[in-house]
Amino acid sequence: MVKSFLLVMVTILTSVTTYAQDETFVFTPQWTAQAQFAGYYVAEAKGFYREAGVKVRIEHPSATQPAMSRLRENRCQATTLQLCQAMEIVDNGIPLVNILQTSMNNAMVIVSARGMDPLTQKGARVGIWSVGFGQLAICMSIKDHLYYEWVRFAQNINLFLAGALDATLAMSYNEYYQLVQAGIEMNDKNVYRFCDHGYNVQEDGIYMRRDYYEKHRDQARRFAEASRRGWEWAAQHPEETLDIVMQYVDNAHIATNRVMQRLMLKEVLRLQVDRESKKREFRLRPDMVRQASRLMVENNMLSREVTYEELIDNK
Fold first, then answer.
1. Is residue 1 pLDDT above 70, yes or no?
2. CA 146, CA 43: separation in Å to the nearest integer?
C-alpha cells in the first residue's frame, strides 16, 4: 500500500513538473539581440530556466511590435522596461509588477556635436529614440530651461554623424560606443552624464502585467531567480557569455561585432553595481522610484505619482 501511495505521488509530481515546463513563458527584451540582455541568453543557454521548471521562449520586438505593445496585448508574459517607461504604462491604466531589477544606475548621456557643452545649447536639435527611453532627458530640458527640439530616430547614430543634429541622446553601453567607433571624441565638455547631475534613476527591470502576475506568482519567482542566476554567471564568465550573445546576434542578423558587444557587456555589468553598496543588488530602490515619479509629475509626463508599492509584490 505504501509502495502504491509513493507511486501515485511520483506520478502526480512528475505531471506537475511536466505541465510547468510545457507551459511556454514568452519573454521579450525591449530591444534587438545584444549584450544588454546577456543574462537572459545565458539563463536559457545554460539551462537555468529549465532547471527552475520554466519553459522560456525569448522573442525580441520588431518595428511594428515594440516590447511595450507586446506586453499590453498579452503577446508576452514579461518584458524588460526602464523604470520611467513602466511608470508611464501604469499611469495609463495597466498595472505592472517589477519581478527583478537589473539596472542600479542610469546609462543615458547627451553627446554634443563640435565639442560644445550640451547645457549651453538652448533650443538645440537633439536626437531621441522614437520608441521612448528619453523621459528623463525631456524633464531635464524643461527644468534647466534648455527647451531642446527633439528629433526622433529609430535606432542608429546616422543623423548625428551626418550633421543633422546638434546633439543626441545615447546609452553609455550602446550608442556611446558606436560614436566612439565612428571617431567622435568624447570628453567631459561635450558629454553630459545624467547619473552625475541628479538624474541617477534606475533603468532596466523585468516587468509583468499585474493581472498575470497575481495568477502566476510562483512561475514569476522561478523565472526571476533563474534570470538573476544568468546575470551572476555572466559577470563571472564574460568571454563565454559573449560566445552566447554572438549566437543570438548572428541568428537575428544584427549588424554589430564582438568588440562592440564586449564593451556593451562590460558597461551593462558595471551599471548593475549600486554606487552606494558597491554590490549587484537586483532590487528596485524606493528612493529612485520617488525621484523619477516626482520629476515626471512636475514636467507633466505623469498625471499622478506612481509609487514604489504599486510596482512591487506588496502581499
1. no
2. 43
